[in-house]
Specification:
The protein has 269 residues and is of the alpha/beta class. The protein folds into 2 domains: 4-139, 3-Layer(aba) Sandwich (Rossmann fold), CATH 3.40.50.620; 154-263, Rossmann fold, CATH 3.40.50. It has helices at 15-28, 53-77, 92-100, 115-131, 165-178, 203-224, 239-247, and strands at residues 4-8, 32-38, 43-45, 48-50, 83-89, 105-109, 136-139, 154-157, 182-188, 230-236, 252-255, 260-263. The strands form 2 sheets. It has a 10-stranded mixed beta sheet with strand order 5-2-1-6-7-12-11-8-9-10, sandwiched between helices.
């Protein structure tokens, strides 16, 4: 069986991702593989550019130490879990994409940083989520307790396109696995003007069309997952804002493409 793979770094910011990935691997009855990609610094000397061997060895030793610490943490979450570690030298994005080709799920951390480092972190998760061949889960930093009255649930954004189907399948399975309801969110907007005078179609027609789109997207999954309660949310708003608003207090947020998840204590990106 393919493993759950979690990508880690040396900063310790992947701790939540490791915890989540270990629990997920245990629930799926599969192995956990912890992957760290590192790129040694290239230093300039008076004769050109060189990479001192001692610098390479030091970088590798630090990376191996980080892997060992993350593996120890995972064993603390699930003591009986089969865990493997893999150290890769080179591009982080390419390493994770290579690992995703042989995984059933790829888990990444979100550092919760600001400025350039935050931009780079988002870039890695965005690139990997867009091109990975397996579902990708991005773990957000821990947040204060959920707002009052927000029950645990899995949230999925539905747009009615074929690309949404993998996200729906992943979301239904995740809701069943966790024993929580599924909240399906579909955002809609008023019809564009039908003539030069800017006359819009009636809002009731736009809402009715949105409802049919949502029901059509969910219909095949109800029979496959009859035990999963589904709550539908029709929102007249921007899709990203609609999913972000629904995500507060959710256990997991699932969005296309590639059934990329944002979890836990999450707000959609």
């Amino acid at each position: 069986m393919a493993p759950v793979v979690v990508g880690v770094d040396r900063t310790g910011s992947a701790a939540d991702a490791v915890d989540w990935a270990a629990a997920e691997a245990a629930s799926r009855g599969c192995r956990l593989r912890i992957v760290h990609a590192f790129q040694p610094l290239v230093l300039a000397d008076p004769y050109g550019v060189s990479t001192p061997m001692d610098g390479l060895l030091a970088a590798r030793a630090a990376a191996e130490s980080a892997l060992w610490l993350h593996a120890t943490r995972a064993r603390g979450v699930v003591s009986h879990l089969e865990i493997a570690t893999r150290l890769r030298c080179g591009s982080t994005v390419q390493a994770l994409l290579d690992e995703a080709a042989h995984a059933q799920l790829l888990v990444l951390g979100s550092r919760g940083l600001h400025g350039l480092r935050a931009l780079l972190a988002r870039s890695v998760s965005t690139q990997v989520s867009a091109h990975a061949t397996c579902p990708v889960v991005v773990i957000r930093p821990a947040r204060p307790e959920a707002p009052p009255g927000t029950p645990p649930r899995v949230v999925v954004g539905v747009d009615g396109t074929p690309g949404c189907r993998p996200a729906l399948g992943f979301a239904f399975q995740a809701a069943r696995q966790r024993g929580v309801p599924l909240a399906a969110v579909h955002a809609w907007a008023a019809d564009p003007p039908a003539d030069l005078e800017g006359v819009h179609g009636p809002a009731t027609m736009g809402e009715a069309h949105a409802r049919r789109t949502l029901e059509h997207a969910l219909h095949p999954w109800h029979a496959q997952y009859p035990d999963v309660p589904v709550v539908t949310r029709l929102v007249r708003d921007d899709p990203a804002r609609a999913v972000a608003a629904e995500s507060r207090g959710a256990a997991l947020v699932v969005v296309a493409p590639g059934a990329a998840g944002i979890c836990p204590r999450c707000a959609a990106p």
